[in-house]
Amino acid sequence: MESTNKPLEKLNILSFKGIQMRTFHLTWMAFFLCFFGWFGLAPLMSVIKTDLGLTKSQIGNIIIASVAATVVARIAIGKLCDTWGPRKTYSALMGICAFPVMMVGLVHSYEGFLLFRLAIGVIGASFVVTQYHTSVMFDKKIVGTANAVAGGWGNLGGGVTNMVMPLIFAGFVGAGYLPESAWRMAMVIPGAVLLVFAFVYYFFTKDTPQGNFEELQIANPKSVKTKGTLAAAMKDKRTWALFLAYGACFGIEITFDNVAALYFFDNFQTSLATAGILAGTFGFMNIFARAVGGIVADKVGKTFGLAGKGRLLAGLLAMEGIGIALFAQSGSITIAVLTMLGFAMFLKMANGATYAIVPFINPKALGSVSGIVGAGGNVGAVLAGFLFKSENITYSQAFMYIGVAIACVAAVVALIDFDKSARVVTGAEKLEVAEA
């Protein structure tokens, strides 16, 4: 019988038994809810645009702001996971970020909205804790699959948000609120839920299968020292290859979450609800697509090692780039939806494959590696955001440029030998060797 305080070797998604599976489910649920706070405004932007009198350039700045703060936040949160522990880190992140989510409705100017969008973007660092916490709960044989399922089901929040927030908005309109008030009231809902879930996460999870960091510190003062983890992660070229890869997949995913509803609304003259549903189908594929990427990566890894996982990732990125280029040239809504579903499959599989590699780069610097790679996703989103901000580039042209850029990243990833790259040893690992 498997020890209850060891990482699990099997992922039974129907089980809530044990701290590992309870943490797994609460982690993806937390990430799912974070998406409502992070992207709850995206499907309402056509209303907000009219209410605040926003220009295309200003909307571009808002898109950039929504992901820019996450770059720094993910690196910081990754380091906190290594030192403070994922339980307290996640709880604090949700609790603090719940307030700008609830209060964004107080603004009545572009500048105020931009600042709140920047503050709300910090909650995007929730992904790093999700991947870290899942990684420490599962054995290396299954960690890629576990990470992909947790990340995918959490990312599903991006799709569900596009579908649900217009309904919440409509509910407030039906209750008698004007549209310019209804979008503000709608954002109180995800903020309040995040605040409640922060307490749930704190009281019902643990940092590791063996217990919380502070408990392990008391039992063995040297057991959780992680000095030098960020420096070690930054000195490994594989970390930066994955940084680029994640920018090319997840970075484009959150960019698409931001612009999809507006793109369908403007380009194909759909209703707000229809645009939200179409955009939502993109995110909804996370219920299985990211998990498929993790499962395939784990199977490839058993036969071909990390080098095989790297080649798989490069191939998925190449197919994603081709799919986005085809989407950019779609002349009808039918072709646009079909090509969107095609590139979405490869994009989300690439997400899963990336974090099937991350836990093996440097296990003692897992939080820092996860943070840097996760930040890469947001750097990709920021760069893509500048394309959508430009007054001289149409959204279709922006998607074409993105497709070409992803193909270039795929070529870089294909050149990296993930098996043989030297890994820098952290202070904690030197200590363990000395003690042995």
From TrEMBL:
Q: Which GO terms describe its biological process?
A: nitrate assimilation
The signal peptide here is none
Where in the cell does this protein reside? Answer: Cell membrane; Membrane
| Gene Ontology MF terms | nitrate transmembrane transporter activity; nitrite transmembrane transporter activity
- Main location as per UniProt: membrane
Q: Which UniProt keywords apply?
A: Cell membrane, Membrane, Nitrate assimilation, Transmembrane, Transmembrane helix, Transport
Which PROSITE patterns does the annotation name? MFS (PS50850)
What membrane topology is annotated for this entry?
A: Multi-pass membrane protein
Q: One GO term of the cellular component aspect?
A: plasma membrane
Q: What is this protein called?
A: Nitrate/nitrite transporter
The organism named in the record is Dyadobacter luticola
